[in-house]
Design goal:
Blueprint: H1 3-21, H2 28-35, H3 39-45, H4 49-72, H5 78-95, H6 97-108, H7 115-138, H8 148-168, H9 173-191
Helix pairs in contact: 1-2, 1-4, 4-5, 4-6, 5-7, 5-8, 5-9, 6-8, 7-8, 8-9
Length: about 200
């Protein structure tokens, strides 16, 4: 088995174990045992359990970004694109159990395991949302905001609030059912915003 294949097996195994038992209850010994790799092999690829967890979360973030990038190429109006962007983001985050675990760990401890990954992801989302907002302004779907970056910042804060809600109410059908209505209200508010 090649080095990259071994690394992939370790990451896939760790992703499943972290998702099932959480970061703190998953050991490198257990990851080595389940992946059928020597513990030294894990440490060859990853300097620590934290480093491996970050790789798992980065993989989940990349999967979210890939899904979001696919919808950006769709030939739809900016309001529908933004609505789909928010919905797909939430749907993918719910599946990204380790990303949510990283958010939980941030609440439980003063030390963040994935803060820099989240900041990079948020910066990427800001750029994408800025493009969608500008597209909506250009096509007159959204009003010509005096400060479009403030609109983008507000949407990012909404996304962060939704992530916390998704984490807290992960399996709540009523919360998930309200999500579409909440996103619809955000888009309607943007389209009818008067400064």
């Amino acid at each position: 088995m090649g080095i990259e294949k071994t690394r992939d097996v370790i990451v896939q195994t760790a992703q499943k174990l972290f998702a099932r038992f959480g970061f703190s209850k998953t050991s490198m010994d257990e990851i080595a045992r389940v992946s059928r790799k020597a513990k030294g092999s894990l440490y060859y690829h990853f300097s620590s359990k934290e480093d491996l967890f970050r790789e798992v979360v980065q993989k989940e973030i990349n999967e979210i970004k890939n899904q979001l990038e696919m919808l950006l190429s769709e030939n739809i109006n900016a309001d529908e694109k933004l609505k789909k962007f928010l919905l797909v983001h939430c749907e993918m985050v719910v599946k990204a159990i380790n990303y949510l675990e990283g958010i939980r760990a941030d609440f439980d401890k003063d030390v963040s395991l994935i803060e820099d990954l989240r900041i990079q992801f948020i910066d990427w989302e800001k750029n994408v949302i800025s493009q969608i907002i500008q597209e909506g302004i250009d096509s007159k779907i959204f009003p010509a905001f005096k400060n479009p970056q403030a609109v983008v910042s507000a949407i990012i804060h909404i996304i962060l609030g939704l992530e916390i809600s998704l984490f807290l109410f992960r399996n709540s059908r009523s919360e998930n059912a309200n999500l579409y209505n909440e996103i619809h209200l955000v888009i309607a508010g943007l389209k009818n915003f008067k400064e």
